[in-house]
Amino acid sequence: MSDTKKKILELLAQSKITADEAYRMMSALDGDSVAHDNAGHDNTGHENTGNKGPEMKTKAKYLRVTITPYEGESGEGHHEHAEKVNVRVPMSLIRAGIKMKSLIPPEALDKANAALKDKGINFDVRSIKPEDLEELIEALGDMQVDVEGRHGEKVKVYVE
Amino acid sequence: MNRPPLLMHVKIQNKDANFGLWLPLFLLIPLALVILIILSPLILIALLVLWPSGWGRWAWESFKAAIGSFWAMRGLDVDIQGRYGLVRVSVI
What we know:
The structure holds 2 protein chains of 2 kinds.
Chain A lengths: L2 H11 L5 H19 L24 E7 L15 E7 H9 L6 H13 L11 H10 L4 E5 L5 E6 L1
Chain B lengths: L6 E7 L4 E7 L3 H23 L4 H17 L5 E6 L2 E7 L1
Antiparallel strand pairs in B: 1-2, 1-4, 3-4
Helix pairs in contact in B: 1-2
């Protein structure tokens, strides 16, 4: 364990920093060490996404959605009935899809706004600007969704 | 800038059918270009006529979005294996 990490833990023990701050500091340190370890290597894995420091953040290229069926303790599961899904969507395609917003007729946008209002969401769809969406897509790089279904199937949504 | 997709591979596998299809998308680009050049006077007239009503702009935006979506398809990969068989679509 490095001296810096020890110092962070000491500060946490002395209640000078909160657990959240300590976690963020440790993550930043881990990000740095990963950056040094992987210098010159292509890092496309999604496992380290959460540990990446700001300088480590690479531009997200694909949105991945995977659904893997439950395989049981010894590998036997509901194979005959289970569906396995593996989808990879390029980010550029998502951007192109978002640009299609301009094709939606204003009446349809009014209807969408009304439907959102009915559901208790007071939001104007027209207020979404391309620059906001670009920011949103960039923020997707930090996202990872892991859901375990009722039948044991695993749904993963992440960016790589 | 993205490179356009060159090939599309479609694979369908089930009890009744088992086939794979390679679609040469790169052949579509010159073909589409030729059609566009031939039809360009008509497209221009249609745009000019429809522009005041607002539909011209909509048509132009649709055209741009369609081209953009096609261009951005490289790397798309859909792989579904279920009880009915396997469907795989990948754009290379």
